[in-house]
Specification:
mainly beta; 12-stranded mixed beta sheet; 7 helices; 10% helix; 41% strand
């Protein structure tokens, strides 16, 4: 259990944010009361988060590191490295959840994902899951010998490679390729201890789908190289959400120009060099707090021969708090790359932003940015020179049920890998009255009928369980206001259909290879998924998506037929139109990578707007063959159609592509 002292300390850590808000609002009785109310609200939120208690039933097939077969013993002060590594190494590419109950786990060396077979099962489909963020601590021993050299930094946890591999070996080179599918680290704290100056907290790699969720990364003495390192080979697309990093030279470091990173609700504090360094990635970030004496953000490397570098940052809703005199000598944000920024406030810095990007305003003084672009806003019809600014809703999370109250589809007759239809068994489990139904990681289950997510169900969880079939899974009305569907791996090119017809909120989280047709009226949240197509068919519906990886090649990927669609972080692959907004719909895209692999027809635009409203910010392109999109936006108003051609868009040095900082296509 987390002590009340730890909670109080965490609450007090928010005081700089409160002081910033007070200074911006003005020091009067009304603003002080607002700050106090905000402080109470944040403290309440922290206490609520402390109730986090993720426990799986024994039938779920998760791998408990404290089990007799592995032998990790938290809180005993002894080294647990071998026990945890044994659990990690045993299941390459098996989609296993490696589970840590609450407690402190002492380690002396890197924990890395299973090596498996090169280009087949290496470093993929593995999840490290803690019982709770504050309750599970993986702590590196003080003065660990392998973590003493800052010039050869070494991760405490590595999801993409074994740091002891020979850098010239074929195995190491293979680890740089974008094949690290489905990796995640969730609900725990990583503490690098003291006197480990060469330590990286977490070196994270995932491709297509994978996330760092609800994680704290701490350096006790503020030493260490990087808290969250996102630089090993072809990174992303991936999601980082609800992460706090305290100490280190750099809080977060990215590198490389592909395949995009999405972040939301990120806090960095007390770094020695920079809070966040973006070294070329397409980075979409909403909800960022930095409390530092050094720059909060550095974006991009030096310009090269008339083109801006590849670093493309979309930044929404940020608080940048400068501390000490050192901050007063620098900018909160320093950039040579592309930036779209909105609703940024700062205090304690010389100025809020400086840039040497071409055509960009070189310096923004003061402590506030309402909206800013490093390149002129583009439009084909008369439109406001600002993004659509659709409302942003928090992605729902609900408390986990007592595992004794879960039901397992196997208990109702479902059998994995037998090829027989499991629809009846699944439906019986759902209609049993349980609020949580689990599909264990015990093979692939088949749905050939019509499966309804209804009644008392509020969490349908796969534990990365496999699904296939030619039936449909329908989110229907039920007794609870929110339904969460998460952790499913759908067989590639499956004919299984997913539909939504409900009036309640539905969250689709951590899923691969699924398509969705939505006719419901309730809110929909799509969270770290791989999809082929998305169809929004009800004008009364609102949809929020983050880390949306669209990879269909044969048809338009997203059709928004009158709904409201908000996307933070889009990555696409292949040809065809990516988003078609029609019938008076609203689409706002905040950050994305268009990976133009394969063939693109010259008549297919990336984005199509048909008598509707849309804005696209921070969209960068990558291609490595001779073929790419010629038309970026095709917009129709009334009977007139205009096109934004590729040559109108600024070039980026990285990945041969272009970068669209902001396009607006809607009436005033």
């Amino acid at each position: 259990m987390t002590s009340i002292y730890a909670l109080v300390f965490k609450v007090l850590s928010y005081l700089p944010c409160l002081l910033l808000i007070s200074s911006i609002s003005g020091c009067n009785e009304h603003s002080s009361k607002q700050s106090l109310d905000l402080g109470i609200a944040q403290a309440t939120q922290i206490l609520d988060e402390n109730k986090e208690n993720i426990i799986y039933p024994k039938s779920s097939a998760v791998i408990d590191v404290t089990g007799a077969e592995y032998g990790a013993v938290p809180n005993d002060g002894k080294d647990d490295t071998r026990a945890i590594q044994k659990a990690l190494s045993r299941f390459p590419n098996r989609g296993k959840i490696i589970y840590l109950p609450n407690g402190v786990y002492n380690i002396s060396d890197t924990l890395h994902w299973p090596r498996g077979r090169r280009f087949a099962s290496d470093y993929k489909r593995t999840i490290l899951q803690g019982q709770s963020r504050n309750g599970v601590v993986i702590r590196l021993n003080n003065d660990s010998p392998k973590f003493q050299n800052p010039r050869k930094s070494r991760p405490v946890i590595s999801t993409g490679f074994d740091p002891d591999l020979n850098r010239s070996s074929r195995d190491f080179k293979a680890s740089l390729v974008a094949q690290r599918f489905g990796n995640s680290v969730r609900n725990l704290t990583i503490n690098i201890g003291k006197n480990n100056p060469g330590a990286q907290g977490l070196n994270f790699v995932a491709n297509n789908q994978g996330a760092v969720r609800s994680v704290t990364i701490i350096s006790e003495d503020r030493k260490g190289k990087t808290g969250l390192e996102l630089s090993h080979g072809e990174i992303g697309p991936l999601l980082v959400e609800d992460v706090e990093i305290i100490g280190f030279d750099r809080g977060i470091r990215t590198k490389n120009g592909i395949n995009s990173i999405t972040m939301q609700n990120i806090t960095v504090k007390e770094q020695n060099r920079v809070g966040l360094y973006n070294g070329g990635q397409v980075l979409s970030l909403e909800g960022f707090t930095s409390v530092n004496s050094v720059p909060a953000i550095i974006n991009g490397r030096n310009p090269h021969r008339g083109k801006d570098p590849g670093g493309t940052l979309t930044l929404i809703n940020a608080k940048l708090i400068g501390r000490t005199r050192r901050a007063k000598r620098t900018s909160a944000i320093s950039s040579t790359g592309f930036i779209y920024a909105r609703n940024i406030i700062s205090s304690g810095y010389r100025d809020i932003l400086s840039s040497n990007a071409r055509q960009a305003k070189k310096r923004i003084k003061g402590n506030k940015i309402d909206e800013y672009t490093t390149r002129p806003v583009l439009a084909k019809f008369p439109s406001p020179k600002k993004s659509l600014q659709l409302p942003i809703k928090k992605f729902p999370k609900i408390a986990w049920d007592d595992p004794d109250k879960w039901v397992n589809v196997e208990d109702f007759g479902a059998v994995g890998n037998d090829g027989k239809d499991d629809t009846v068994a699944f439906q019986a489990a759902i209609d049993s009255g349980a609020t949580t139904v689990i599909v264990p990681r015990k093979g692939t289950f088949t749905i050939n009928g019509n499966l309804r997510l209804r009644g008392n169900l509020r969490r349908f969880i796969g534990s990365t369980g496999g699904l296939n079939g030619k039936g449909e899974i329908v989110a229907d009305n039920g007794n609870h206001s929110t339904l969460i569907v998460e952790d499913f791996f759908i067989t590639h090119k499956s004919k299984l259909k997913w539909k939504n017809i409900t009036n309640r909120t539905v969250v689709y989280r951590s899923m691969s290879d699924f398509d969705l047709e939505s006719k419901g009226t309730g809110d929909v949240f799509i969270d770290d998924v791989v999809m082929g197509k998305l169809r929004l068919l009800n004008p009364k519906q609102s949809v929020w998506a983050r880390q949306l990886n669209i990879e269909g090649y044969s048809q338009t990927n997203i059709i928004n037929n009158g709904a409201k669609l908000w996307i933070l972080g889009l990555k696409t692959e292949g040809g065809k139109t990516k988003i078609d907004t029609r019938s008076g719909g609203f689409t706002e895209l905040l950050g994305g990578l268009i990976y133009a692999a394969g063939r693109q027809k010259p008549t297919d635009p990336i984005f199509r707007i048909r008598n509707s409203s849309a804005s696209f910010a921070g969209v960068a392109e990558a291609f490595f063959d001779k073929d790419t999109y010629k038309i970026w936006v095709e917009e129709t108003r009334g009977n007139r159609t205009k096109k934004l051609m590729r040559q109108r868009i600024p070039g980026r040095t990285t990945a041969n592509g272009q970068a669209l900082v902001l396009y607006t296509g809607y009436g005033g």
